[in-house]
Amino acid sequence: MRQMLWLIAFLTLTAPAMAQDDDSDLRGGLDRLGEGGRMLLEGLMDEMRPMLDGMQPFLEEEVMPMLNRLGEIVDDLSHYDLPERLPNGDIILRRSPDAPPVAPDDLPETGDDGTVEL
Predict the structure, then answer these.
(1) Hey, where are the domains in the chain?
(2) pLDDT of the chain along its 118 residues, tens only?
(3) What are the distances in angstroms from CA 45 to CA 4, 21, 34, 42, 111?
């Protein structure tokens, strides 16, 4: 697929510039160029469709439930700093110091020692 994109870019950039004396010639050339671009994109989509169809079950079964749960926990992303990756590989989202306080009913339950069950 990457080779096809390079080929498209190469052909597009190296096409000779043609002097057009008549607007109809220019319009006709642009129409042909647009039609060729459409055909290339259709071919690319035909090549990618099996891969996208294969990804759909993974997205529905794995990614969407995780994003839904994240949406339940995180109220507004603008209230959080950028994610950090810790040396052990964990990724954390710190709440911004200037964010409004979290409602008490939105807080997770904590154990006697202050730990949170994930």
Answers:
(1) 24-97
(2) 666 666 666 666 665 554 445 577 778 888 888 888 889 999 888 888 888 888 888 888 888 988 888 877 777 888 889 999 999 999 998 888 898 887 766 666 777 776 777 6
(3) 12, 36, 16, 5, 52
